[in-house]
Every structure is written in C-alpha cells, then in structure tokens.
Design goal:
Elements: H1 3-17, E1 19-21, H2 22-29, H3 33-45, E2 50-52, E3 55-57, H4 69-72, H5 77-89, E4 96-99, H6 103-111, E5 117-121, H7 124-130, E6 136-140, E7 144-146, E8 151-153, H8 155-161, E9 166-171, E10 175-177, E11 181-184, H9 187-198, E12 200-206, E13 218-221, E14 228-231, H10 237-244, E15 249-252
Parallel strand pairs: 4-5, 4-9, 5-6, 9-12, 12-14, 14-15
Antiparallel strand pairs: 1-3, 2-3, 7-8, 10-11, 11-13
C-alpha cells in the first residue's frame, strides 16, 4: 500500500470512529507504531485530524453536532451506571449540587436516594427523574431548549446560574486531554458547563475510559479546575499517573 493511500485510509478511520489509538492503526496497516506517528504528524499539519495521547481524534465538523440523547444513553451503559453509582456516594444530606444534562447525570439522578438535598440542573430528564423524590428540591435553569439532549442552554440558562452557589458539581464531557483540558462536542453545552463549574466548591468530572486523550470541538476548562475524576478501570495506567501528578483525585471503579 502506498503511503498516500494509507494516510487517506487513516483519515477515514478516524472520522468514522471519532478516535483511534496508534497501536490499533499499527495492527490494521501492518506498519510500526513509529510509522503511524509520522503519518499522524503529517495529517495533523494538514488539518485532517488532531493527535491525542496515544492516538488521534477526528476534526470533522460533524463532530460539533450533539449526539441525540437516546443514542448517548446506550453508549457504554455499564461504565456510566457504575460511575453514576460512585458519584452518588459522594452526595451527603443537605448538599446543594449541580447535575448537567449528560446521560451519566441522568443515571445518577435515578440512583440518588430520597434525602434532603438541592439539585440544580439544566436537564429535563434529570428534573423529571427527581420529581418523584419528595425530599429533593429541584431547580431548573430554564433557557433555550436543545431537543436532542433535552437540556436548557443559552444566555438565560447561564445567567440563572449566577444566582446560585453549590457544594458540588457533577459534570460529564466528551473529552479530557492532558494538555488541553476538558471539552464538549457542542459549544452551548460547553458554555453552560463552564458556568456550572464556576458555581461549585468541588468539581467532579464523570467520564468513562473512551473519553481520555480526546479533544472535542469546544473547550470547557483546564484540568486545574477539577477536584475529582470518577472513571472506570479501563483507563491506561500511564494516563492515570499523569492525572494524579496534577494533584487531581482519581476515583476508579
């Protein structure tokens, strides 16, 4: 296979899968990992992809589109539920918390016991789930509705957050990158998550292994703002060590 043909196929794979690792590309094309890294370096200079820790991610503009809620809900279900259950353990009576509009936050809402806490959210599904729990006070941000994610965003939603201060924010995202921080596929979601983080004393990021090394379309914030990362056990040990070196608490389930 010619070099140009291999590189064209690499771009196709990255856009199809959204992210892929160097080791996998090496096996697919029967070349060394060093050769793959040279290919990725060249393709990044041509703005055809973005290199990440151990691989590459897509720069296809379609990635900026939100994935419909019903699709996100069935991606990595076990990991998301386990992460959500662990996040629930971090919630104490009388806490005031923020839950974003992620599917992991919805699983967390389902698992929360009926205890006296206050939950601020921009998610219709989270608010609806918590409406049956009599001791939980639910506050919705309001704002412009995104139908795909059933969430409120925009200036009104962001402005409403200025009125509140919470103990803990539980946020999910599309990517976490050691150099470039946390990011989301939708700019409006990134903006409101940035505001949520500003409201909180303690920030918990809830992400499964597939989000590490990924840089999505819209930047949310740097890693320094994170207090805890709750994730599953399939994250590479090297990445976990680099995260811990940044004084971020890791909860791996």
């Amino acid at each position: 296979m010619l070099v140009a043909e291999r590189q064209q196929k690499i771009v196709g794979l990255v856009n199809e899968r959204k992210s892929i690792r160097v080791t996998e590309l090496s096996q697919i094309f029967g070349v060394t990992e060093e050769t793959v890294r040279r290919d990725l370096e060249k393709l990044e200079k041509e703005n055809k992809l973005t290199r990440s820790h151990g691989g590459a991610i897509s720069t296809d503009p379609a990635d900026s589109m939100e994935i419909p809620y019903f699709q996100r809900e069935v991606i990595n279900i076990k990991e998301k539920k386990d992460i959500a259950f662990e996040a629930v353990r971090q919630v104490k009576e009388e806490d005031k918390i923020i839950l974003d509009a992620s599917s992991t936050a919805w699983y967390m809402a389902k698992a929360l016991p009926d205890i006296p806490i206050t939950v601020l959210t921009n998610s219709i599904r989270v608010a609806t789930e918590l409406s049956t729990k009599n001791q939980i006070t639910v506050i919705s941000t309001g704002g412009s509705l995104l139908s795909k994610s059933l969430s409120f965003v925009g200036p009104l939603a962001e402005a409403s957050l200025d009125s509140y201060h919470v103990n803990k924010a539980f946020i999910s995202c599309k990517g976490i990158h050691l150099k470039n921080g946390i990011s989301d596929s939708n700019e409006q979601q990134a903006q409101i998550k940035r505001k949520m983080i500003e409201c909180a004393d303690t920030v918990y990021i809830m992400i499964d292994h597939s989000k590490f090394g990924v840089q999505a379309f819209s930047h949310i914030n740097n890693l320094e703002i994170i207090d805890y990362i709750i994730t599953d056990s399939r994250v590479d040990d090297e990445i976990l060590q680099q995260i811990e070196d940044k004084s971020i608490h890791l909860v791996s389930i």
